[in-house]
Amino acid sequence: MNKIIFHIDVNSAFLSWEAVYRLAHKGGAEDLREIASAVGGDMALRHGIILAKSIPAKKYGIKTGEAIWEAKQKCQKLILVPPNYELYEKCSAAFMEILCDYSDVVEPYSIDEAFLDMSASCHLFGSPEKAAMQIKDRILKTLGFTVNIGISNNKLLAKMASDFQKPNQVHTLYPEEIQEKMWPLPISDLFFVGRATARKLLSMGIRTIGELAASDPVWIKRILKTQGQVIWGFANGIDGSPVFAQPEANKGYGNSTTTPFDVTDHKTADKVLLALCETLSNRLRSDHVQAGVVSVSIRYTDFSYISHQRVLYNPTNLTLEIYKVVCRLFREVWNGRPVRHLGVHTSKIHPEELWRQRDFFDEIDYEKLFRLDQTIDSIKSCFGPDSVMRAVFLGQPNTD
After folding, report:
1. Backbone angle region of 46, left / alpha / beta, with phi > 0 → left and psi within -120 to 50 → alpha
2. pLDDT value for 356
3. How far is it, in rounded angstroms, from Cα 156 to Cα 242?
4. Which of 18, 80, 178, 187 lies deepest, with the highest CB count within 10 Å?
């Protein structure tokens, strides 16, 4: 059976969801999607970037991810609205629920996009194009926002197709259409090609996806290593990854925050790192896994970045054990300059073990710490995240 894969992507998701909510529930008279507008973080808390933008805003050159002050310079009349993540989660859940009516194999790819394997169910709704149109129109009629749908026989080509002309469109990109529809596109439009890779390819004289597809794969791999092999395959429409009905197990867990003030001393940094470790270790315990590698990342006020990691003697999900390692890593790598962003990350994830390799000189009761963490997790789950709080956080702003 030939594969039929859909990629469904909400158009300007955060902004669309804000617009629909304001029109339907807050009595708004103006549709944010029809004016120069954007969803942006709080500049006072230094989360001041554009998270989503309207099509009229895009005409001013405003880009997702750029600083709000830069966007304001391009369009002084830009309407900014703060993000509402609780609303976005509800909209995403309703969006995914509709998709599950069309296939048993739905893979959420992010909060606003998903892959559907329609191979076994497409015939129930007509041709792939008719099925996609039905999904697109039902989402608009039921939920009030538009989506783009890409159709192909693998995930890579379906995702590339969904990025064609927007909004509210259905596009196909079958293997026989690659030469006409995909190869003329700039190399930066290819999935998995970021800014640094695009610059590297341009310096090699490769400007379009077609030029990459026609290049020597051995040469590309020699220059770009494994990524070169992958993107050369993508340029030729090669992708064998399946659509997963269940999400793959996490290969790593992380948490980070941009602080509303510059961190200039160890004591303040320790508080921020402890808050991050609490959230991260709770997620590890919720998934019944442990981390074998812990790292800390620092972004300074000049936006320079550094990270430092350590392999643990025993994998763990204990808050204080991870925190102890993180504090040590921070002290080893911090150069004393003001910090605006801190992160804690873990990798080498293992299933949760009931035993651990003991150190002869180790006097810590790890079983007691685990029971304490579990009890705190249970209380927070029942009564909210602020129902139990460490004394060090009393009167402190939330950094999660």
Report:
1. left
2. 63
3. 10
4. 18
Beta pairing, strands 106-110 & 113-117: antiparallel
Does residue 318 carry a pLDDT above 70? yes
Structure tokens at 334: 């911090």
Collapsed DSSP state (helix, strand, coil) of residue 170? strand
107: annotated active-site residue: no
Which residue's structure tokens are 């993000």?
83
Q: Which amino acid, one-letter code, is at 302?
A: D
Measured between its terminal Cα atoms, the distance across the chain in Å is 47
What is the residue type of 186?
P
Which tokens is 218 given? 């051995």
- DSSP SS3 for 22: helix
SS3 of residue 38 by DSSP: strand
3-class SS of residue 282: helix
52-92: pLDDT as tens digits: 999 999 999 999 888 888 899 999 999 999 999 899 999 99
Note whether 310 and 294 are within 8 A (CB). Answer: yes
User: What tokens were used for 254?
Assistant: 């992380």
- Active-site residue identified among 113, 177, 278, 363: 113
